[in-house]
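Notes taken during the Thursday session

The instructor put the following on the board and asked us to keep it in front of us for the whole hour. The protein is ABC transporter ATP-binding protein. We were told not to look anything up and to reason only from what is written here. First, the residues (355 in total):
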Amino acid sequence: MIVSGSAADAGGAQEAFIEVDGLEKVFDVRRRTGFLKRELRRVRAVDAISFTVARGEMVGYIGPNGAGKSTTIKMLTGILTPSGGRLRVAGIDPSRERTRLAHRIGVVFGQRTTLWWDLPLIDSYRLMHRMYRIPDARYRENLDRLVELLDLSALLAVPVRQLSLGQRMRGDIAAALLHDPEVLYLDEPTIGLDVVSKARVREFLRELNTERGTTVLLTTHDLQDIEQLCSRVMVIDHGRLVYDGALAGLHEAGESERTLVVDLERELPPVEAGESARVVKVEGPRQWLAFPASMSAAPLVARIAAEYPLVDLSVREPDIEAVIARMLYPSGETPAPRSGREPEPETVVPAPGNS
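Then, after some discussion, the predicted C-alpha cells were revealed:
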C-alpha cells in the first residue's frame, strides 16, 4: 500500500514526462555455497512500482541501501531492460530507443564518473561535444555558463584523476548538462562532499530547475538535499513504492525527530525545553534535545539562547533509514535484512522469460 500526499496529487495534474506503470526488475543471482556448488537465488530488485513525474518537477527518490533506487534509475536511462511493466520517458521506451533517449537525458552517478580519468577536464567536454553532436555555438554557450555557475574555470586544464571529489562531482554535473537534457537523473550527487560543495551544487540545481524547467529525479541519503530541492518525495523499500507525497508527510508518517546539540558554558541540569522538545542525553556541558522534524528549530534555539549560557549549538537531521523504518515498522519489529547493495547486471543473469 502506498502512502500518498498532496504533492503527488498536484504533480499528476500536470503533463506527465516520466510514466512508470507496474515496473519490475528480477535478477537470478548465482552464489557459491561449496566446492563446485552454486545456489541460484531470485532477487526482485524492483517490484511493480507505478508513478508519474511531471515536466519540470524536482522529485526525491529515496530509500535504504538495496531498496531498488539505482536499479530504477538504470531502467529509466535504458541501461537495464525491465522484467515487466511499462516505462516511458518523454514518450520514449528507454530500453528500445536508448540512443534516441540519450540526447534528452542527463545522468550523474555520485560514485562513478563519466569523465575520462587521465585527461584534462576540458578534453572530456570536447569529447561530449562530438559524441552528442552539439552545435558549436550551443556548446560554447552552455560550457561558458556551466563553468561560471559551477566555478570550474581553474579546473579545466587539470586531469580528472587530480580533482577532489567535490570538484569532480561539479565536473560530472556540467558534463551531464552540456547537451541541454530535459531530465536530469542524480544518483547520490552530494555523497562525500563538504558543506561548501554541497551548498554550491544545491544552489546550481535550484537555478537550473527554475530557469530552464529541467525535470530532476534525485536519489540521496542526505535529507537536506531533499528538503532544500524537492517539493515531493517518493520512498522505495524492498523494491516497492511505499510513500509518494510531501516531505512533511513523510516525517509525520515516520514520526521522525531532529536533534539539537547544545554546548553550555558549564554543566547544568537538563534544560527546560517546553512541550515540543525533550532532553535525551546529557554529557557534561553538552546536551542533546529531540524535537519533531516538521518543526522549525528557530523558536527552540531562541528560547535556549535567552535562558541559558549558550556557547555553541548544531542541528542534526534524522537519518533517512531511521525515518523509513519508523514509518514501515511502527511497532518496532525488525525488518528483513538487506544485502546493502543492489544487484549489478555484470554479476547476475536475467530470470527466465525476462530480457
